Amino acid sequence: QIQLVESGGGLVQPGGSLRLSCAVSGPSLSMYRLAWFRQAPGKERMFLAGIRWSDGTTSYAFSAKGRFTISRDNAKNTVYLQMNSLKPEDTAVYYCAAKRGSVSDYEGAYDYWGQGTQVTVSS
Question: How far apart are CA 18 and CA 82, in angstroms?
């Protein structure tokens, strides 16, 4: 059983930065792929970025490339999402998710989810 706990959300001004954290616990993490999704009000949950725990290989949605960076710290069992140049349209609940096996940007493929952390971009 994998457990995921997000933190780091909050209110930030447009143009600002924020780093989200996802504390990961459970067995055999090297077999998992971790990902960040977000869900804005009235919209579907959307894939942002993923990382393979075993070797750190990353993948990004087109919309996230250039402003968002996913990384992991094996020693701390934590996955991060660094977000820069934030815009009001980035306002959403951000979720950490985990799945075994291959890369996927489909939320239905993920077996484990955190509770989410709210990010609000506003002046």
Answer: 6
